[in-house]
């Protein structure tokens, strides 16, 4: 047997192994893709396409800032008597009282008497933490949650984890773009939904691991109770 023949023999098992490995990688990638696609469809099935008034009243209302008309819708719920007080969570530190007044002129009396501001929250998880503190200080047991439809699944995951004993009543806000055109015809809306889906999955995984005692990203310790008090009204930044 020639030297060339002897050198070529070991290549066949190597090629076979590479082929098996490649096929396994392709199969796993396919399974992951199908699973992600099915999960995305399930995520979309949670999104409401119309705004529906809450089925019942609650002790309080919290609006998570970031989307158009969230604050005005929350103030409207407060004015209609769906809750005793409203927390606007995630207010930008530089915004002033006149910003809300300009966008919701009829809200001035409510802003003075029944609205509290949270300027500390910077994301949905800290929204949940600050809301928990507010709810505990007020002694509330039920809460209407106001946020955009695409954000609601993740918001409920975070709020439920932070406040497992509080009854949460979702009130979804439908943005103008969502009303005007189907999400699958808009590249910007599709990118927003895909991004939110990834964040939702990350929140679900982190919360489920936390229930098992595996805290991947521990919360920053909260300041003592009593740190949140009614503050000067202001609008929130878009996140």
Short overview:
This protein has helices at residues 3-8, 11-45, 70-79, 97-103, 108-113, 124-138, 152-162, 176-180, 187-211, and strands at residues 60-64, 85-89, 115-118, 142-148, 167-173. A five-stranded parallel sheet has the order 3-2-1-4-5, sandwiched between helices. With 239 residues, the protein is of the alpha/beta class.
Key structural traits:
alpha/beta; Rossmann fold; five-stranded parallel beta sheet; 5 strands; elongated
Overall radius of gyration: 24 Å
Q: What average pLDDT do the residues reach?
A: 80
CATH topology of the largest domain: Rossmann fold
Q: Order of helices and strands, N to C?
A: HHEHEHHEHEHEHH
Integer count of domains:
2
Q: Based on the coordinates given, report the CATH architecture of the largest domain.
A: 3-Layer(aba) Sandwich
Question: Total number of β-strand segments?
Answer: 5
Topology:
Layout: H1 3-8, H2 11-45, E1 60-64, H3 70-79, E2 85-89, H4 97-103, H5 108-113, E3 115-118, H6 124-138, E4 142-148, H7 152-162, E5 167-173, H8 176-180, H9 187-211
Parallel strand pairs: 1-2, 1-4, 2-3, 4-5
Helix pairs in contact: 6-7, 7-9
